[in-house]
Amino acid sequence: xxxxxxxxxxxxxxxxxxxxxxxxxxxxxxxxxxxxxxxxxxxxxxxxxxxxxxxxxxxxxxxxxxxxxxxxxxxxxxxxxxxxxxxxxxxxxxxxxxxxxxxxxxxxxxxxxxxxxxxxxxxxxxxxxxxxxxxxxxxxxxxxxxxxxxxxxxxxxxxxxxxxxxxxxxxxxxxxxxxxxxxxxxxxxxxxxxxxxxxxxxxxxxxxxxxxxxxxxxxxxxxxxxxxxxxxxxxxxxxxxxxxxxxxxxxxxxxxxxxxxxxxxxxxxxxxxxxxxxxxxxx
Amino acid sequence: xxxxxxxxxxxxxxxxxxxxxxxxxxxxxxxxxxxxxxxxxxxxxxxxxxxxxxxxxxxxxxxxxxxxxxxxxxxxxxxxxxxxxxxxxxxxxxxxxxxxxxxxxxxxxxxxxxxxxxxxxxxxxxxxxxxxxxxxxxxxxxxxxxxxxxxxxxxxxxxxxxxxxxxxxxxxxxxxxxxxxxxxxxxxxxxxxxxxxxxxxxxxxxxxxxxxxxxxxxxxxxxxxxxxxxxxxxxxxxxxxxxxxxxxxxxxxxxxxxxxxxxxxxxxxxxxxxxxxxxxxx
Lengths: 283, 282
Known about the structure:
CATH class of the largest domain in chain A: Alpha Beta
Largest sheet of chain B: none
Structural class of chain B: mainly alpha
Number of domains of chain A: 2
Distance between the termini of chain A: 33 Å
Number of helices of chain B: 11
Number of strands of chain A: 11
CATH architecture of the largest domain in chain B: Orthogonal Bundle
Largest interface: A-B, 39 and 33 residues
Structural class of chain A: alpha/beta
Number of helices of chain A: 8
Shape of chain B: globular
Strand content of chain A: 15-25%
Helix content of chain A: 25-40%
Oligomer: heterodimer
Strand content of chain B: under 5%
Largest sheet of chain A: 7 strands, mixed
Strand order of the largest sheet of chain A: 1-11-10-4-9-8-7
Distance between the termini of chain B: 24 Å
């Protein structure tokens, strides 16, 4: 299976299509439109650039994976999308507004669930609503969102009583409760066992598609990128730059990993991943 | 979507299951038995000391320190309400001293814990001040406060503030940075961050600091109450010494010990209640 490639940062001009699945069945996207314009970053003034000249456009409702080796700046880029960090140059624009600070409209989910251990599952899930003073919504929204992540029966349990996968589901519920337009995932499944990881990958993709969210996922796992995303942006390191931007042309049934089409996409992405790694100067 | 992950294991865990079932119950009984043994040993030593004093011609004037006269006096003091009348002002002074120490120690501890620069600036002066015996402030307290009562509360607060401040600062420094990042990411403003994340996260550290402070404050109380006041347990000890009523003096010492033990146990229960760490956590 072949797919059109876009190399080195010209993605904005040729953004790939959304997932191949059945677009007609999907709801109108409520997700955010994201534009990254000329973004560069150095941690200190005289240090080398971690990210250099990133230009990307991500459509509302698109599910995009940022794929790259450790140290290529993909997590740094995600932090800038969330407003938790600020770029040295360039800007991130979400729905026409420059990102200057974190917001419940663009929420990040981290590698560790980092639940508050003194709270119940429901209290953890409701944090975003409490912080944004939407406490009246908690009574209806939290049961609904916990049902969505299959934790409705666990609402009153202490967060520490749950398994790792369940805790990551609570973190997902916590991220979804404020009705974000953009969900940013920073390798959120990497600490989970393979079985749990596969289930969560599928569930998160299904939820994002059902809700019409824009989802940007950072990963160094090629299979995860193929399984979850409509489009993969491969980053090279030293400095972090877009090496290529390519759609994933699989329908939903082909994404479970067993199909020839999946294997073909996996092999194609592995080559792109390896090329990006080879192109990058050694650190 | 299906719930793929199995629910967490029960809290006992495999280590708990491998123990014989009856052991926790035995352990509990053993704890009580050992405590009773300790009290009995203390009583025996007290009785021996009292017997020795009574039979020493040089010390026999102090024979009322022995258990029997002391406990008889204690019963009389409790029945007559003297014990409560003595303890009330002392508890009030310790309570006020702890309150002021907490009102200063917790916010300053949070600031020091959150801001490394402030910690670096304050560390040496605070460690220096901490090492000064609270009773050394007595002359300054007497000059600075219009009432003896105010001076005593000040001395107690000076003694109690450091454990609370350092324990709070240590707790804040140990807060998982990921919690703060998650909260910021979800739109937490500074006040919400303080009330929802920082204070619950360090509640146990604050209470442990208060527990330590309570011990120090209770120790400082008696000499502090030697100052001008005419009420409280420290005054009662001084008064009993001056009137040579050694049974009453001994009974007051017992009251101080019992109340101190009770207060410590009460704060210990609060620490347990607010401790969110589960031994069975994954």
